[in-house]
Amino acid sequence: MRCGFPSPPPRRSTTGFASASTDRDLTFDGEVDAGASVHATLPPHGRGNLEVAYGTRGLGPWLYGFAPKGVARVRDFQLDLSTDFGGLDFPPGTLSPTTFDRTPGGQALSWRFESLVTGQKIGVDPPDRLNPGPFVARVTFFAPAALLFFMAVLVILGLVQGPSLHPMHWFFLSAAFFSFHLLLAYLVDHVVIHVAFLISAVTSVFLVVSYLRLVAGMRFAVLRAGLAQAVYLVLFSYAFFLEGYTGLTVTVGAVITLFVLMQVTGRVDWTEALGGTPGEKRR
């Protein structure tokens, strides 16, 4: 009998590999060649308990296959798996556990089959630890779109309700808006990412609000610019923490924005608002 543990893929490593047995009839040896493997020898019709333990660094699912390839037939199979964390998922195409229980701080799963013919594997996918580098890269890549939403709302509301801002005002507002991304990119190397996010967001919002209160008053700065920045900078950027829901969050925000702007501007005479002759008749 041979139990194989493949060599770790790039950017992962296996540490503390060990094997042990308490059965006298079971002899074994362990080696690491193209991965780690354990060779166990049993007498005819013998049974034994073999314990194998190893630690791993890296992200990705854990899989157990009944056969290297193709379909396998197993009898009296039992696999128990316990974790000291929650949030487990199951890779596509794997067998669901027959029992699933929550334990203090973790989960306990079991797969039990009296007779099974299958080509599927057993597997679990642990929750991924957020990697700050790729996270900041995604947030920064989305920054121009977030700024476009922010500016569009303020420009349209400025045309309808006033005041309209000068291009130099937009220059300083854009710089204050992007200060969030600049601070976030450098802070994540020194503090926890959520703390870096909070510091960057508060700094950027403070710069925008404190500047616009001098330009257009506190009401405009807080209720328009501050609220718009909270939505299109802070909320949209925070959506990248919600793995799998980022696109949906941004889409819902965009649809709500469209609805609000359509309701606010539905009765606006755009000819007059855009500098045309007041009271021109529509054709």
In terms of quaternary structure, the protein is single chain
Low-confidence parts: 7-12, 24-35
Q: How many E-type strands?
A: 11
Shape: elongated
Task: Average the pLDDT over all residues and give the rounded result.
Answer: 78
How many separate domains make up the residues? 3
Main sheet: strand order: 1-4-3
Relative strand content:
25-35%
Structural class: alpha+beta
- End-to-end Cα distance, whole Å, is 87 Å
**SSE pattern, N- to C-terminal:** EEEEEEEEEEEHHHHHHH
Radius of gyration using CA atoms only:
30 Å
Q: How much helix, percentage-wise, in residues?
A: 40-55%
Number of helices: 7
Biggest β-sheet description: 3 strands, antiparallel
Concise account of the structure shown:
The protein is of the alpha+beta class and 283 residues long.
Key features of this structure:
3 domains; single chain; elongated; alpha+beta; 11 strands; 7 helices; 283 residues
Q: Could you explain how this protein is built, in words?
A:
With 283 residues, the protein is an alpha+beta fold. The protein has three domains: 58 residues, no CATH class; 65 residues, no CATH class; 135 residues, no CATH class. Helix content is 42%, strand content 27%. The strands form four sheets. Strands 1-4-3 form a three-stranded antiparallel sheet, with no helix packed on it. Strands 6-11-8 form a three-stranded mixed sheet, with no helix packed on it. Helix 2 runs parallel beside helix 6. The longest helix is centred in the last third of the chain and has 23 residues. About 6% of the residues have low confidence.
